């Protein structure tokens, strides 16, 4: 069974009394009851930029620090938080975050597959946009598969954004993803300084909170700048020899799309996506046609072993005509959890 997303909240969101006694403002009314709701848009060296009153007339950007009563609980971009203190947003004001609300989704990674320490990247996003160039740099299918696994693990839906279609045909590449039914958009910068495919991408992002991931040089900043006027994300220059970009973005940042169109969260270029924390059961729930066939599997089945009941399930036609290629693709994803050289 999949864990519910509420299990993600390792330490619960309530503010517990602090032993050292952070003094309540009045005898009966602890500070966190008067707290103002806000959303974390970026984090920089212990200072959190948060948005108060999203979409309202008194909407404002406030800088905050974490309150002592939060203990060691992490705060990440996308978190819904409660603020106390100076929440005016005036230049020298500093508010305090006293509570992190329960997270709906949580995108996590480990530094590598043997690293037990999970790092939370972003919370409360709906969609993971995996940005890959079709050429310069060459696509890295294993990294893309790992991002898909991370999206499923996070409870997010994936979207492939394939850039630089002016340099290579997307079709052969897209064939690998057809059985997974992952939606995709294809973009290319055009001669007149615009980006082809941008409207399709906007449509796919509208009204949702989407996290963009991709390794350096794939054209992610170029997309963000086209989507969010005034974002001014630094674009790098791909080295013609190594195909690598400079690491020009350093921290995750949430940016609002124009016309109430949703949010994009840009993340620093990634080189790896450690999946040590991922449970196969959290992946297979995204394949309902196959999950139904796991009842006959031995206990603790990896679904990638001889005794797995899915082969018989698919051979019996229970997963439809695409069953065999779906199972093959599912197993390809499950195998990405095993480290290989070059990931
Ligand atoms: N031919 C072509 N080049 C592109 C396209 N999109 C972006 N580029 C170029 O690719 C290079 C890298 O683009 P960036 O937007 O900086 O890539 P990034 O993924 O943000 O990289 P980092 O900032 O290093 O994380 C730049 O020289 C862009 O001009 C495209 O569709 N076609
Ligand atoms: Zn099985």
Percent of residues in helices: 10-25%
Residue-averaged pLDDT? 84
Quaternary status of these chains?
single chain
End-to-end CA span: 29 Å
Rounded Rg: 22 Å
Biggest β-sheet: strands ordered side by side in the sheet: 10-9-8-13-15-14
Portion in strands: 15-25%
Largest sheet: 6 strands, mixed
Coarse shape: globular
Question: What is the CATH fold-level name of the largest domain?
Answer: Rossmann fold
Attached small molecules: guanosine-5'-triphosphate, zinc ion
CATH architecture of the largest domain: 3-Layer(aba) Sandwich
Q: What is the H/E order?
A: EEEEEEEEHEHEEEHEHEEHHHH
- Per DSSP E runs of 2 or more residues, the count of β-strands stands at 15
Give the CATH class of the largest domain.
Answer: Alpha Beta
Q: Write the CATH homologous superfamily of the largest domain.
A: P-loop containing nucleotide triphosphate hydrolases
Q: What is the count of helical runs?
A: 8
In total, how many domains does the architecture comprise? 3
Structural class: alpha/beta
